[in-house]
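pasting for ref
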Amino acid sequence: MEKRTYYNNIAHIYDQTRWLTTSVAEEVADFILELVDATPETSFLEPGVGTGLNVLPFVKRGYSVTGIDVSQPMIDQFKQKLHNISQNLRLIHADASQFPFPDQSFDVVLTVHMIHGISNRKMFLDEVDRVLKPQGFYLNAQWITPPARMEFERYFRAILAKYEVEETSKQVKKVIEQINLEDYFHSKGYRSNYVIAKEWTVSNTVEELLGFLKLRAYGLCWLVSDEIFPRVMREFEEFCVEHYGSLETELSSQAKFEIWAYTAS
């Protein structure tokens, strides 16, 4: 059964509204391949694979890649990037927190902006540990939001907060089990390492960023109803004109791709 997810609604605009470009993804892939001492036989699993931004470089280079995602439209966008589905790529439409694989199936498990949404984190990490081969790597990564965009988002959240209370009170809150990844993997005998794979400059005009919000490209845009959202956007656009002086003002700052790497014993 298809889970409700806003990613179904934004799959067609996902890549253009994020700040990880194709060229940056290639450089990050270079870094990861060196980090895990990859050989032509190295296999990758990405739960929450989405549109394939993170693993497409591995597919193109011939590595064995498996991706799982709960959103079929996101998977469909991944497929559209390939003329034919490569023999070395397997895409599975399923809950990305459950692995239908035998023990010790993969050399590398990669999650990007995914672990925070897992409700039973210990069960998920147990699965990661189970499917990793000896000497395998679990890479828990995220793209750090550029500070200028983060500030822009904070202003938006402040206005959104005035409207979202009634709506969010009707939603069932998901309980996220808190578990420290460092403690978990150290208890399993893993070695850990924190690295920054890439830093790069991201630039957008205020008008571009407003356009992304109007497309409801991010989860926070779905915290209010369809009826209320246009009112929020009108108020925020007025704020932007006053605060930034012009919608053509360019916001530039540094983004980072950071990785917490855990190596199995």
